[in-house]
Amino acid sequence: MTKFCLTVTCATTRGIVAAIATFLAEHGCNITDSSQFDDTETGQFFMRVSFASEEGADQAALEKDFAKIAEDFAMTFAFHDESVKMKVVIMVSRFGHCLNDLLYRVRIGALPVEIVAVISNHMDYQKVVVNNDIPFHYIRVTKENKPEAEAAIMKVVEDSGAELIVLARYMQILSDQMCKVMSGRIINIHHSFLPSFKGANPYKQAYARGVKLIGATSHYVTADLDEGPIIEQDVVRITHAQSPEDFVSLGRDVESQVLARAIHAHANHRVFLNGNKTVVFQASPGSYSSERMG
């Protein structure tokens, strides 16, 4: 049996859930997991349904037959084959903890993605990447060559068929144009608990304010720096006795975990844009299990 998930966004009204459940039952599909959210402030409805096609209905047939229901409710919808891994390009600069964490998670099957390329503006992690049998692209970025560098980045994305760009501590600001072209398809990890301490050196900013918690935020990238819709966040407790360097060390683990959880949610089609916010549904049972232990 092929397993699919269906994602739906539309204006809230009566009968949406009933129409979807009836459609799937009539097409020989068994629902295995379902999440929904009705935003009373915006009037938007969001739903994600996992199901098994028990009588051979394929994705093309489901999409074609569902079109009438989608038209009736003015839905934005998509069917996704859960066995297909999302293609991802990772971008990194000189801090490699998030990159190394993602390489390991992908290697053991803990993330449903295929890393098709790693791009960096430094050579630090070329050997690590190549040893994982992943293409490494060194693209130098300066103030003078930024348009050409971004064109080279986009060529790698397009040639590799990547559906998502992950900024794993990539320390270059992307242009407004690139943010628009890849809207909703670039995920960043910022080393603070946004909206606090935006921009450069957030750990030093946190130290100067004497905070007792530091955190990390994974969000979609927009033209507004560190203002994109938030996907995932977490924190770690610190004390007055710790230095900014301690903050950096403690923050590494939080950054890695938060970024991995955000990618997991996006790759499993659990994240829905809702204005400048997101709706993030809980993971389906079994979706965090690894294919192997090490």
Automatic annotation (TrEMBL):
- E.C. no: 3.5.1.10
Which Gene3D superfamilies would you find in this protein's record? 3.30.70.260, Formyl transferase, N-terminal domain (3.40.50.170)
UniProt-listed InterPro entries: ACT-like_dom_sf, ACT_dom, Formyl-FH4-Hydrolase_C, Formyl_transf_N, Formyl_transf_N_sf, PurU, PurU_ACT
Q: Which GO terms describe its biological process?
A: 'de novo' IMP biosynthetic process; one-carbon metabolic process
GO MF entries: formyltetrahydrofolate deformylase activity
The pathway entry for this protein reads as: Purine metabolism; IMP biosynthesis via de novo pathway; formate from 10-formyl-5,6,7,8-tetrahydrofolate: step 1/1
User: Residue ranges of the ACT domain?
Assistant: 5-86
Entry annotation: catalytic residues: D226
Protein's job: Catalyzes the hydrolysis of 10-formyltetrahydrofolate (formyl-FH4) to formate and tetrahydrofolate (FH4).
What family is it from?
Belongs to the PurU family.
**Could you tell me which NCBIfam families the record lists for this protein?**
PRK06027.1, PurU
Protein name per its UniProtKB record: Formyltetrahydrofolate deformylase
Origin organism is Celeribacter persicus
Phylogenetic placement of the source organism = Bacteria, Pseudomonadati, Pseudomonadota, Alphaproteobacteria, Rhodobacterales
Question: Its encoding gene is what?
Answer: purU
